[in-house]
């Protein structure tokens, strides 16, 4: 007669006519409730249009029937108000980035109020989020600027790495070139040093050979050397005008005999110095008294012999020079 009696279980149930009647029929299966589109304002004052889907299930038929007049309508309204509250706590970027966390928070808030209604909210899903056209255009510009920034950064990094690689290559090239030049200079210096050493050895051997020949040849060898020195002396004066515009010549150029005599005087000076050195060696071996007596005699004899030898050599040189000139 209008009073709650019992909950009928699935299967066969017996009712008394005119006394028992079924007042509410509740399905215990999961149901999807569509949440209509609504507007919400974010923490940074951006108005959004959102809609979603709420999944519920009745776990207590008695509370769902007698705890609330219309459980589906009540849960729908509670979902809308809860969603507005949660959206107001977040900025636009967080709303777009944290949709999963937003759905979880809305589900927990609905379950706290719907527990007394015998209904449990399994999950809530935001279906669509619509932002104003101006905000969408600004977001597109922001994305474009961000991507352009990344592209420029990558381009600059590429240019920087390219410049570094080029500089490293040039550095290595310069280092290798300097090492090659150093090795080349070392090789050239070693070759020059070896060549100088070889030439010096050859010159020393030639001087020794000439000295031995002169020592073995005696007066005839000395005369030949004198003739050679005189010829080179004359040839040197003949080549003076070929090497420069200013020529310095002695006053007796026309006197060929005087020139040859000058050359022979130079050779005589050298021979005299060598003779004095030999005499000094002999004086060191003799007694002091004999040395003083022998020195005066030898010196006088040496000067007279050298003078006669110089005259003979000069005559032979002049005669040889005249014969050579006539042949030419």
Structural summary, described in words:
The protein is mostly helical. It has nine helices and three strands, in the order ββααααβααααα. It has helices at 61-66, 71-88, 92-97, 99-114, 133-217, 219-238, 240-243, 256-285, 288-327, and strands at residues 31-41, 47-58, 119-130. It has a three-stranded antiparallel β-sheet with strand order 1-2-3. The model is unreliable at 287-304 (pLDDT under 50).
- Tally of individual helices: 9
Head-to-tail CA distance between termini: 170 Å
Rg over alpha carbons: 65 Å
What are the low-pLDDT stretches, counting only 5+ consecutive residues below 50? 287-304
- Fraction in helix: 55-70%
Average pLDDT figure: 75
Number of strands: 3
By secondary-structure content and strand pairing, the structural class works out as mainly alpha
In what order do the strands lie side by side in the largest sheet?
1-2-3
- Proportion of residues in extended strands: 5-15%
**Largest sheet descriptor:** 3 strands, antiparallel
3D shape: rod-shaped
Sketch the topology as an H/E string, one letter per element.
EEHHHHEHHHHH
How is the secondary structure organized here?
Blueprint: E1 31-41, E2 47-58, H1 61-66, H2 71-88, H3 92-97, H4 99-114, E3 119-130, H5 133-217, H6 219-238, H7 240-243, H8 256-285, H9 288-327
Antiparallel strand pairs: 1-2, 2-3
Helix pairs in contact: 2-4, 5-6, 6-8, 6-9, 8-9
